[in-house]
Specification:
281 residues, alpha/beta, TIM Barrel, eight-stranded parallel β-barrel, 12 helices
Length: 281
């Protein structure tokens, strides 16, 4: 298996072992160094993710080059994944430049339109041995929801079965109670629904977005119910930002390699925790 590989073999291995793969968003060289350092110390596979915003910030050529270089330093294979791809064109560009996995997020579209878009991306991706993640239901941002409103976005098992059959996705992101951003209250996951979805989709890997801030015991139970990939972003950005602020407040040093070091360490510690949790340690 190449060092930079599709997510499907990683997810298959995780499912066989009753584990999950930590999908870690990176935003710059420092967060990538933190994630790859954590993966190296644990001898673990991870999924490196970028959103469209990071692509606009760094550029596709630089992202792929950085991820490839990181993969060559690791013992275990890793994947480079597009997180929340909003269009066919963006997914196609990522595939062209060397991403090994893409997510196409049609979750805000009507079901039939989501199927058409996701299937189109899957056909392109699979022709070049790239994995595809779709989303059904909608994982909202915490700022968008209140009270019990989140339940109207939840994934239905019968829809999930039809969706994976018609699109042939390798992984499916489901809405069962998580959200993006900082949680404002108690996190409640619908494990009965999650179990029903897993039974409905069979071997297709399930993905949990909004993993940051979810208590460990809930994430472990989600893995036991069939989650094979857990996304983390908010906690990583928070750790980096807090580390930078603390570093700059405590010194007049202007060497960025020194002032960024505490932030890299802070993100690495979070990455170590999330990778270990997903592996069941």
């Amino acid at each position: 298996m190449p060092k930079l590989c599709p997510i499907q073999p990683l997810l298959n291995t995780a499912q066989r072992n009753g584990a999950a793969i930590a999908a870690l968003n990176f935003y710059n060289a420092e967060t990538l160094i933190a994630h790859s350092g954590a993966a190296k110390s644990l001898k673990a596979s991870i999924i490196l993710q970028t959103t469209e915003s990071t692509i606009n910030y760094l550029g596709l050529r630089m992202i792929v080059s950085m991820a490839t270089a990181a993969a060559e330093e690791l013992e275990q294979p890793i994947a480079l994944h597009l997180d929340h791809g909003g269009s066919y064109d963006l997914a196609a560009r990522c595939i062209e430049y060397g991403y090994t996995s893409v997510m196409i997020d049609g979750s805000k579209l009507p079901f039939a339109d989501n199927v058409v878009l996701t299937r189109r991306v899957a056909e392109l991706a699979h022709s070049t041995d790239v994995s595809v993640e779709g989303e059904l239901g909608h994982v909202s941002h915490n700022d968008e929801i209140s009270g019990d409103d989140i339940t109207r976005f939840y994934t239905r098992s019968e829809d999930a079965a039809q969706f994976v059959k018609e699109t042939k996705v390798d992984a499916l992101a489901v809405a069962v109670g998580t959200a993006h951003g900082f949680y404002k209250g108690e996190v409640r996951l619908d494990f009965d629904r999650l179990t029903q979805i897993k039974n409905a989709v069979g071997s297709t890997a399930l993905v949990l977005h909004g993993g940051s801030g979810v208590p460990k015991e809930l994430l472990r139970r989600a893995i036991d119910c069939g989650i094979a990939k857990i996304n983390f972003g908010t906690e990583l950005k928070d750790a980096f930002t807090r580390g930078i602020k603390l570093s700059l407040c405590n010194t007049d040093e202007i060497d960025l390699r020194k002032t960024f070091a505490p932030a890299i360490d802070a993100v690495r510690n979070v990455s170590l925790e999330k990778i270990s949790l997903c592996r069941g340690y």
